[in-house]
Amino acid sequence: MGGLAGNPAPRWWRRDREAGRREAAAAREAAAAAMLELDGALADLPDAVAAAEEAGTDPAGSAGRRRAQHRIPAPDSLARDWRDLSAHADTVIGQYLQALAGHDDAEPERARAATRALGDAAAALRGVLEQVQRFREQYGEVLAAATRQRAAAGTVVAAAADALTGARAALASAADAGLADPGAQGLLDDAATGLAGAESALAQRRAADALAAAEEARSAADAAAERARALPGRAAKVRRGAASVRTRREALGTRHERLAGVMSELRRRYPLPAWADVERAPQRAAGALAEADAALAALTSALAAPVLDVPEAAALLARVRAAAGRVDEEVRSAVGRLERLDAVRADPGALLTGVQRAVVDARRFLSGLPEDRARRFRRTFEDLARRLPPLEAAARAERPDWGAVLREAESIERGLAALVRTARAD
């Protein structure tokens, strides 16, 4: 009678079917939870492993050498272990999906089979999860470094893009002022090419290549911007220099004219061997003066152009100065030779006294050295010292060859100075 009141209890076969369904549903939920946890553990690994493999590859070629500094050495076993792990994970996940597709709790027998299949799948998924965790423990540092590198690549590429924008603005400002620098434009073009390569590498998830290309692009862009911003100052310096060399050119003409008189005095007073090395000074000076005039004319034209190529103008200014310097040197050499010969002729004793003092100083220096060191230089010293008496005799001859006397005196002094330098460095 009591069984007729309220809700009747399910029959035994009904209870068995409901229990089977509940067990199958619980197994499905457990397997789904295991799958979800494994999926989370695997989510970032393919990219991290790919980054580690790419960053650990030995660089080759010129592009590879540029990215060598970004190489992250990875164990050889990483790629092999990952292939094995990912293949095993795919197999287990496939089995889980198959069990899930075959899940059927409509009949008790099928519900029990589904429960067993899903339970096995959940256990296998948890087993793979443990393998994934061990893989992370073993290769975690390499994977983390590669992941950081990939993140850094995006930052560096963005910085290179900003640098390129700034360089373009600097060159545009210089162009508005009528100033140009082809070298800066070339650097800008290199930066643009490098940035395009960096962005392409970043899109292909080649972090090391992206970093290397972006760093080069940023360096080129910074260099271009620096040169562009320096153009106004460089242009002003070139203009000031041009005014200075024009004034100097007038003085050079006067100095060059002096050479004719100097050479006449050398020919009149001394034999050719005494001044043979400056015999062609007038011709060399004339050639340098002509080069200075040509460069100065080109510089004047460059400064008058609507757009001033600043590096070219600076190079022309340097050519003018170098040529002018050669004119000065030729004049100075000839004048100096005449003055030196005249001084020796007027007072040979001063020349001899200088050489004698050099001999005495060198002897005193050697006497202060330890005997074993002094012995190594004594022979050279004695050879030089023995040349002093013949020099004195030549200077006191009835008709001295002042050119030979001067050359010998300078040779002895140079030899003694070299001996002392060598002994000190020994």
Q: What does this protein look like?
A:
By secondary structure, this protein is an all-alpha fold. The protein folds into four domains: 121 residues, no CATH class; 58 residues; 115 residues, no CATH class; 78 residues. 83% of the residues lie in helices and 1% in strands. It is built from 13 helices and two strands, in the order αααααβαααβααααα. α10 packs antiparallel against α11. The longest helix has 69 residues. The N and C termini lie far apart (126 Å). The N terminus is likely disordered.
Short précis:
The protein is 83% helix and 1% strand. It has 426 residues and is an all-alpha fold.
Dominant shape: elongated
- How many helices? The count is 13
| Share in β-strands | under 5%
Backbone CA Rg: 45 Å
Tally of strands: 2
Q: What is the overall pLDDT average?
A: 87
C-alpha termini separation: 126 Å
Largest sheet report: 2 strands, parallel
Helical fraction equals: over 70%
Can you list the strand order of the major beta sheet?
1-2
Q: Low-confidence parts, pLDDT < 50 over ≥5 residues?
A: 1-5
Following the backbone from N to C, one meets helices and strands in this order, namely: HHHHHEHHHEHHHHH
Domain count, please report it: 4
Structural class: mainly alpha
What are the SSEs and their pairings?
Blueprint: H1 12-42, H2 45-55, H3 61-66, H4 77-101, H5 108-176, E1 179-180, H6 182-203, H7 207-269, H8 281-304, E2 308-309, H9 310-346, H10 348-367, H11 371-385, H12 388-395, H13 402-425
Helix pairs in contact: 1-5, 2-5, 4-5, 5-6, 5-7, 6-7, 7-8, 7-9, 8-9, 9-10, 10-11, 10-12, 10-13, 11-13, 12-13
